[in-house]
Amino acid sequence: MTSQAVAAIAAATALNLPFGTIYAFSVFLRPMEALLGIGRTQMSIVFGLATITLTLGMNLAPWLYRRLSSWNSVLIAGAISALGLWLAAAATSFTELLIGYGLMFGIGGGVGFIVVQQGVNQTVLRRRGLANGYVIALYPLGAMIGAPLFGWAIGVWGLRATLAALGVTILLASLLAASLIKKTGVHTNRLEEAEQGDGDRQWGVFLRLFAVFFLAAAAGLTVMSQAAGIIQAYGGRTALALGATTLITAAVAAARICGGWLVDRFPVPAVASAAHLWSLAGALLLTAIPGPLVAVPALAMIGMGYGLISGMTAAAIGSYWRADDFGRVAGRMYIAWCVAAVSLPVLAGWIFDRTQGYGVTVMIAAVGNVLGAWLARGLPRPEARAA
Fold first, then answer.
1. What is the distance between the alpha carbons of residues 56 and 46, in angstroms, rounded to a whole number?
2. Residues 337, 286: contact at Cβ < 8 Å?
3. Which of 103, 130, 147, 298 is deepest in the core (most CB within 10 A)?
4. CA–CA dist 194, 27 (Å, integer)
5. Which domain does 223 fall in, by range?
6. What is the DSSP secondary structure assignment for residue 39, as one 8-state letter?
7. What is the CATH number of the domain that holds 283?
8. Looking at the domain assignment, is residue 193 inside a domain?
């Protein structure tokens, strides 16, 4: 691996770990509700907006880094997110929290995520699938590290100081990432747009891959966002639910790395269909043998299926499209993740309020996995593309 590639991967690690704490948002729920006198609905709106603006930032990133440099883009993204977190730390109203965390933190994270991933795809020439799987695994890994740290810091220093410290961390991480990107010598502001025949003829591939990713993400994000509640609904105690949530998050992170690694060795259709079938097996297991002890491995399997597809999708983009076009295509692809986050997870909550269970949700996820496996078989085998 070249020094450029090492620097690009190091930049992605430095930036994505603190931004990945967005997955640890649940730690802020009760203290923020008590601090501002707001309810769970308002907090859900904040997280929902952060999800949307994260995706918006991902799609804004290619426009930005083609006009500026990669390292300047990272600095701008980090500064916006840090200011947003400081606004959230000082918030005295729901509106200030919504603007600070939901809007500014989210959009900066999206820009930074795509910029560093574009840098990785321009510098890593071998085992690009593994590299892409690693980069997207940094978000759940960041949440695993951040959640216990946030819990400790809130107890010792309070919520406002914790959010302010996260803002400082984001700013320092952005400075470090920008300096590392600058050392790579990658010039994204010199990239050319794909020619008509190269980009548009892949539209059919994009839509199929989009659907495969969406169906896995809908099931996986339902598990990640409601794992504790699902296990408790099946009779599990609080300790089991909390422990299982950490286990599932770790399994998803590992699966993301594995999904990218597998694409380096096996055809994309085979990896994608196998991932959906693995997730399907977990859903069928929980449907056939409902219970708390079965729910833990079953939910882990569903989450791992999503993780495998996430890593596979990032690697597949690097296989189907030019390295120069990675950020543009990836930003559009991650719209599937955004839509998935507000589809089955929301429907699962609505179903639970009416049935006090998750059986129907698990069956819906299973149907989605069947459809996803079928669609995955129609993906083409990537041809070697120029870096």
1. 15
2. no
3. 298
4. 42
5. 199-376
6. -
7. 1.20.1250.20
8. no
Give the HSE-up count for residue 289: Cα atoms under 13 Å, Cβ half-sphere: 11
Within 8 A by CB and 6+ apart from 302, the residues are 219, 220, 223, 279, 282, 283, 365
Nearest-angstrom CA–CA distance, 210 and 330: 10
Q: Which of 182, 213, 229 is the last residue of a domain?
A: 182
Rounded to an integer, what distance in angstroms lies between the CA atom of residue 208 and that of residue 214?
Answer: 10
Q: Provide the number of structural domains found in the chain.
A: 2
Which residue type does 202 have?
Answer: Q
Q: How many CA atoms lie within 13 A of 238 on its CB side?
A: 0
Q: Residue 203: its pLDDT value, please?
A: 83
DSSP code, position 22? G
Provide the b/e sequence for 255-283 (b: ≥16 CB within 10 Å).
Answer: bbbbbbbbbbeeebbbbbbbbbebbbbbb
Q: Residue 231's pLDDT is what? A: 87
Alpha carbons 124 and 1: distance in angstroms, whole number: 7
| 8 Å CB contact between 286 and 222 | no
DSSP 54-104: HHHHHHHHHHHHTTS-HHHHHHHHHHHHHHHHHHHHT--SHHHHIIIIIII
What is the pLDDT, as a whole number, of residue 369? 97
Q: Are residues 128 and 223 in the same domain?
A: no
| Token pair for 131 | 């590299």
Beta carbons of 217 and 306 less than 8 angstroms apart: yes
Residue partners of 289: CB distance under 8 A and separation at least 6: none
342-345: long-range contacts at Cβ-Cβ below 8 A with a sequence spacing of 24 or more?
A: 342/48, 342/51, 343/218, 344/218, 344/219, 344/221, 344/222, 344/368, 345/218, 345/221, 345/222, 345/225, 345/226
Counting Cβ atoms within 10 Å, is residue 120 exposed (0-12), middle (13-18) or buried (19+)?
buried
Q: List the chain residues with pLDDT less than 50.
A: 196-197, 200, 384-387
Decide if 62 is inside a domain. yes
pLDDT of 161 reads: 97
The answer to the question of residue 141 being in a domain is yes
